[in-house]
């Protein structure tokens, strides 16, 4: 329906249609200490039973990693963390693009492809919620 919820439960108006749209997240770091941030695309918001997580991205500054994983039927899969470089700089804006195509998500940061993450959920059309957490300022979602 074009409505997504952020991690605080506040509605975010967005023109998103999974699974065939490039989705841009324009983000900017905030604060003085940069530990990391997370972005999750989920199939609803249920906590009991937990909603499936199609992809969870976590930037960990202390380890210079951009970790990804998914959770299907309450079970987390094998975490992936290999990247050619760490693209984030504290206090600098960046753009994350998540392209959902068959059979994978393609993740771009500032226009450069960083990695692919192959789908672990079966029904991509069930993805309807984005959760963003960490010390970030969301400037655009589209």
From TrEMBL:
<dbReference type="InterPro" id="IPR001079">
    <property type="entry name" value="Galectin_CRD"/>
</dbReference>
<comment type="function">
    <text>Does not bind lactose, and may not bind carbohydrates.</text>
</comment>
<feature type="domain" description="Galectin">
    <location>
        <begin position="13"/>
        <end position="142"/>
    </location>
</feature>
<dbReference type="InterPro" id="IPR013320">
    <property type="entry name" value="ConA-like_dom_sf"/>
</dbReference>
<dbReference type="GO" id="GO:0030246">
    <property type="term" value="F:carbohydrate binding"/>
</dbReference>
<keyword id="KW-0430">Lectin</keyword>
<dbReference type="Pfam" id="PF00337">
    <property type="entry name" value="Gal-bind_lectin"/>
</dbReference>
<protein>
    <recommendedName>
        <fullName>Galectin</fullName>
    </recommendedName>
</protein>
<dbReference type="InterPro" id="IPR044156">
    <property type="entry name" value="Galectin-like"/>
</dbReference>
């Amino acid at each position: 329906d074009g409505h997504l919820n952020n991690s605080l439960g506040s509605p975010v108006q967005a023109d998103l249609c999974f699974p065939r749209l490039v989705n841009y997240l324009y983000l900017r770091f905030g604060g003085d200490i940069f530990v990391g941030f997370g972005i999750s695309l989920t199939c609803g918001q249920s906590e009991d039973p937990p909603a499936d997580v199609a992809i969870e991205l976590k930037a960990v500054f202390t380890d210079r990693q951009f970790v990804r994983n998914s959770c299907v039927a309450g079970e987390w899969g094998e975490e992936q963390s290999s990247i050619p470089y760490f693209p984030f700089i504290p206090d600098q804006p960046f753009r994350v693009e998540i392209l959902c195509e068959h059979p994978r998500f393609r993740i771009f940061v500032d226009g450069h492809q960083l990695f692919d993450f192959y789908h672990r959920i079966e029904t991509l059309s069930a993805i309807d919620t984005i959760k963003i957490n960490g010390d970030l300022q969301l400037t655009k979602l589209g």
